[in-house]
Amino acid sequence: MYETPRGTATPSPLVRHSRLAFNSHLVLIQSLQETYEQKRSEHLAELQKKEEEMRQMFVVRVKEKETELKDAEKEVSKSKQNASSFH
To answer: How many domains does the chain have?
Structure first.
């Protein structure tokens, strides 16, 4: 401890500096943690958005393919009917 003119004990300048440095590091670590958590949340939200977009595109493609297959089945059916009517 450091004696002041009044006789009260206060921490030495080195101890005060160490405490300030330690507190600054704690604030920095907390700030970095908050920033990390925010960026992580944003990233996860973006991934979920992309996943939902991909699901929707998949559903659209499946419906398009179903329509193509139904149209192809109709064509085959017509071809069979036309072929059987010729015989």
So the answer is: 1
Question: Which phi and psi (to 5°) does residue 9 adopt?
Answer: -90, 130
Q: How far apart are CA 52 and CA 84, in angstroms?
A: 48
Distance CA 1, CA 12 (A): 6
Domain that holds residue 22: 2-86
Give the span between the Cα atoms of 15 and 21, in whole angstroms.
10
Specify the residue for token string 């101890």: 15
What digits encode the pLDDT tens for the residues 66-85?
999 999 999 999 888 888 87
pLDDT digits (tens, 9 = 90+) for 14-40: 667 677 777 888 888 899 999 999 999
CA distances from 54 to 37, 59, 81 (A): 25, 9, 40
